[in-house]
Structure formats: C-alpha cells, structure tokens
Design brief:
This protein has nine helices and eight strands. The chain is α/β, with parallel strands linked by helices and about 220 residues long. The chain has a single domain, classed as Rossmann fold, CATH 3.40.50. The strands form two sheets. The chain has a five-stranded parallel β-sheet with strand order 2-6-1-7-8, with helices on both faces. The longest helix is centred in the C-terminal third of the chain and has 17 residues.
C-alpha cells in the first residue's frame, strides 16, 4: 500500500509521515531529503547553481541511500547537514532541474515498488504515485509554518530571524506552486488536513484513522 502526504513546507509532513509509518509498520520515504542531499553535494563541489548540466550529471551518478532516519550520500551520513538554512534556500535549484527530478522520481518509484510506503513531498500524489491507495494533503497557515521552521533552525544553533524565515518560505511556496513539472498541487482525490492548532500526536492520530479507513475500504 502507498500512502502519499503532500503539502507546503512547514505543514508538519516529515514528522507526521515518519511517525505514521512506524505505527503502520510501513517504510518512510522523505523525498525532500533526496533533493536536499543532492543540493548539498552540488554546494560542496562549488558548482554554480546556474550550471544545470553539471547538476544533472551529479544526479545521474550520486550514491544516495535513505536508511531508517538517516540520509547517506556516497556513504557519508548527511542527515543533519542537509537541514541547514543555506541548503534549504538552494534546494529549489535541484527541484527545478528536469533531469534531477526525473532521476529522483525514478528512485522513489523503485522504492515504492518493493514495500508498503508512507511518502511525503510536493508531487507524490500528482506525479510519482498517482495510483496510491491513500492520498493526503497536509497544510497550515503561513505564520504557523514559518514559526515551526524558525524554532527548528534556532534549535540547531542557526542565527536567523523569524522575518527571514517567513520571507524565504513565501518565496519557496511561490516557486513550488509555479513549477511546471512536479509543482505543489493538491490532487483531486487527496484529503486535505489543516494542522493549525493540532499537536503532532493529534495530526498522526487523524492520519492513522484515515489510512485505516482506506485499508478497510
């Protein structure tokens, strides 16, 4: 069974999807981490963000593995490194690259073909797994989403203001929505859940109830 959870940044997708997968006994796929990991490798090689061909070549050759809650690039654990504000800010360069996106979509489908899966991202229901048995669209208000991201970055020791986070988030939302292929869209058969005012446990409880109903239906 495939469960897709799409939605904008800061809606709580990753945490909810990870916890939900554990409760269901499913594998968890963090597709955002895949784009972040590739972005990190591009940054470390000091490749220009405008060099789309070089970025595409990295995507075709990268050794990328997601093991439990860890992200490995060429054998190195980059789980923490990919969550920095800098990498988050530049991830759209990877997401906008057609070769990168096609390659990562291919990898995501390979993973989904082997096991029960809870997968989260922007295009899981619309592009990657259009035939998924359960599709969810998780969202929240701009300020709530920015506050969550701000708190997360501050907890990691990054010096940044709330206004900076909110501004970058709005820019990212616009890019995600306007992206021609794999952009942020709610599929017609996705069920929307707003996480404003809900605790992480409340969110997971709602999602689990929804998935169980899909399983029994």
């Amino acid at each position: 069974m495939i469960v897709t959870i799409d939605g904008p940044a800061g809606a709580g997708k990753s945490r909810a999807a990870r916890t939900l997968a554990k409760r269901l006994g499913f594998h968890f796929l963090d597709t955002g981490a895949m784009y972040r990991a590739l972005t990190l490798k591009v940054a470390r090689q000091a490749i220009s963000w405008d060099d789309t061909e070089a970025m595409a070549q990295i995507a075709l050759k990268i050794d990328l593995k997601l093991a439990d809650d860890r992200v490995l690039v060429d054998g190195e654990d980059v789980t923490e490194a990919i969550r920095s504000f800098e990498i988050t800010t530049h991830t759209h360069h990877a997401a906008d690259n057609p070769v990168v996106r096609n390659r990562l979509v291919e990898l995501q489908r390979q993973i989904g073909s082997r096991q029960d899966l809870v997968t989260e991202g922007r295009d899981q229901a619309t592009v990657v797994f259009p035939d998924a048995e359960c599709k969810i669209y998780l969202t929240a208000s701009d300020e709530i989403r920015a506050q969550r991201r701000f708190d997360d970055l501050r907890s990691r020791g990054e010096q940044i203001t709330f206004s900076e986070v909110l501004e970058k988030q709005r820019e990212r939302d616009n890019r995600d929505i306007e992206r021609e292929y794999g952009g942020l869209r709610k599929s017609e058969d996705s069920i929307e859940i707003c996480t404003d005012g809900l605790s992480p446990e409340d969110v997971v409880r709602k999602l689990e109830k929804l998935v169980r109903s899909c399983q029994s239906g």
